[in-house]
Design a protein that fits this description.
single chain; alpha/beta; Arginase, Chain A; eight-stranded parallel sheet; 11 helices; binds 4-carbamimidamidobutanoic acid; binds zinc ion; hydrolase
Length: 340
Amino acid sequence: MSSATGPDTPGAPAAESREDGPRGPVDSSRVPRFAGPATFARLPRLDEVGTTDVADIVVVGVPFDSGVSYRPGARFGGNAIREASRLLRPYNPAQEASPFALAQVADAGDIAANPFNINEAVDTIEAAADGLLSTGARLMTLGGDHTIALPLLRSVAKRHGPVALLHFDAHLDTWDTYFGAEYTHGTPFRRAVEEGILDTEALSHVGTRGPLYGKKDLDDDHRMGFGIVTSADVMRRGVDEVAEQLRQRIGDRPLYISIDIDVLDPAHAPGTGTPEAGGLTSRELLEILRGLASCHLVSADVVEVAPAYDHAEITSVAASHTAYELTTIMSRQIAEDRAK
Ligand SMILES: N=C(N)NCCCC(=O)O
Ligand SMILES: [Zn+2]
Ligand SMILES: [Zn+2]
């Protein structure tokens, strides 16, 4: 057992740790899950994992929401997701895996992005992601508004080349500018296509719905290479068929998944900045993600959780389970690759 002290809880045992494997979450049968400061899923902090023992998957927060077009507050999303993740348990029956035993997952804390200068913040996020990815780790980023997907994709593309993208969102986020600003939460994927960091053969929005500015929005989006699975398509065709179609489109390309929590219906995610009626249920989202377990997921984000509009942690619980499924997909692949 580790000799490290507990999660800032005097006298409490430390995070579960095995000499021969990853250091896992704090044991909730010995330390109440509501005790101590929150890390994602009660996992160790990155600095607790040790300098030589590098994490396979790094959870990182980006408390930045200066790119929003409506309700602010997603800057508090990452910490709300961490708080809501205290109830996650170590075995994921839906994917038949213990994600935190298969790979070392650790929480790196937050990237300190300038809230008063969007362009500088975008650069800061890219540089911080470069540093975390340079160890070979995969990123599970907790936003923050959707602006942050652009610097994250830039960083991932430096390692993998242009990546396939699955974008779960009520919105297209391929608009051009707002008030003349090019980096906003409605524009990251247009910028990414312009910069050539996405594999335009394998781009899909999932859960799209709601009013647009005009039909041109769809024409532009189509020209950029995106396919669209609307939230109504998910309802009509069902999660298995949708996941199968997405798997076909992605193949074995390196894949980035970006999840705007507003892909969920406001009944399932009231705590978000630009809510749209008629969205996915959290059950549908989680099932589609599980159906993508065979895809080569190189990094992912969950963004747009704005806890001020949340009730009873509905949104942050949904986001924590979403990040848990994504983390499980990555950790299973890491274990499989290691066994090869
Ligand atoms: N990425 C999110 N959540 N929303 C984009 C909405 C852009 C608009 O105000 O039209
Ligand atoms: Zn959205
Ligand atoms: Zn979005």
